[in-house]
Amino acid sequence: MATMKRRIPAFKKEDEEREFRATHDTTDDVDWSKAEVWRFPKLKPSRRIAGAQGQAPISEDT
After folding, report:
1. Distance, CA of 26 to CA of 4 (rounded, Å)
2. What dihedral angle (degrees, nearest 10) is formed by the CA atoms of 51, 54, 55, 57?
3. Which sign, positive or negative, has the C-alpha torsion 30, 36, 42, 48?
4. Which ranges in 1-62 belong to alpha helices (H)?
5. Eight-state DSSP code of residue 32
6. How far apart are CA 54 and CA 14, in angstroms?
């Protein structure tokens, strides 16, 4: 698992996080050289599209 270089602040609103992410890169936060590859062999493709906020639930019933 990748290790954290520094602590990411807690955000009260999505706009605060959006502003933070616009000015900070993940390379500032995570040591990607220690990242691991994960495989999910039993993961099945979904027929539904979920938005970034997860508005559409993904389930096996669809």
Report:
1. 10
2. 110
3. positive
4. 14-23
5. G
6. 14
Q: And the tokens for 41?
A: 């062999």
pLDDT higher than 70, residue 43? yes
User: How many angstroms separate the first and last alpha carbons of the chain?
Assistant: 32
The sign of the torsion formed by the CA atoms of 55, 18, 20, 29 equals positive
Q: What is the pLDDT of residues 4-38, one digit of tens each?
A: 566 778 889 999 989 988 888 777 777 778 888 99
User: 40-49: which pairs have CB atoms within 8 A and are 24 or more residues apart?
Assistant: none
